[in-house]
Amino acid sequence: MKTNLVPAKILFIVIVLLSLNLLVGCAGRVFAPKNSVWYYHKEMVDAEKALEAAREAGKDKKCPKEFNAVKDMNDTANEIYRSCRTKEGIDLAKDVTKNANALCRVIDRMTITTNFDFNKSDIRGSDIEKLKKAVKFVKKYPGFKIGIEGHTCSIGTEEYNQVLSERRANAVKNYLVKEGQIDAKRITTIGKGESNPAAPNDTSKGRAKNRRVEILILAD
After folding, report:
1. Is the dihedral of CA 100, 105, 109, 111 positive or negative?
2. Can you tell me the distance from the alpha carbon of 129 to that of 65, in angstroms, rounded to the nearest whole number?
3. Residues of the chain with pLDDT > 70: what percent?
């Protein structure tokens, strides 16, 4: 009989430890029925509410690509959370809320295919006319915020391309401020690196299209 008691005790201890782990990992939930799980942290509920509010506002139809990306992020957050990786799920849910609230901010968009030379952020003289058109485009929306996104092709490391894309965005910003007399406080810049190609990177023509800057008119 003694030989059977040891494994039984070990099994009991393992069950207790696992139960304690689940209680600690999944503590602090609020009542919110969903898929048979009845208690969620507030951040998870907030993400659901933000996503639903965006859907009710018609943003799933107005900017479906962005909406679906946020929806997928929310699904991932819930999968992580239900596996009791609580903090990781909550952190992702916070991003869901932030992104859902910012959906469909782009009112208008202009792509500047300045086709920066490889490894360069300088604006070429042949592209000045395009930038003059960009100034006119921006001036159609006085008072609105302006976002400038820099992009690169895939040649080079991700880290280097990230920095290069930021330099390209800033080059266009500087032109708008200096030559177009646009208030710098209205403009934010971001580098997208090689993450959002406009064309395949397997041809020189495609890579040239990816070396670009996009100007976004943003709602508050």
Report:
1. negative
2. 32
3. 78
Rg (CA), the chain: 25
Helix (H) or strand (E) holding 43: helix 42-56
Q: 182 and 194: one domain?
A: yes
Contact present, 97 and 70 (Cβ < 8 Å) = no
Quick: pLDDT tens for 165-181: 999 899 999 999 999 99
Question: Rounded CA gap, 17 and 50, in Å?
Answer: 36
208 and 115 fall within a common domain: yes
Instruction: For residues 150 and 67, state if they share a domain.
Output: no
Which candidate, 32, 42, 26, places its Cα nearest to that of 94? Answer: 42
Q: Which range of residues forms the domain containing residue 154? A: 106-218
Domain end call among 72, 102, 132:
102
User: Contact, 165 vs 213, CB < 8 A?
Assistant: no
Give the rounded distance of the alpha carbon of 64 from its chain centre. 15
**Count of the separate structural domains present in the chain:** 2
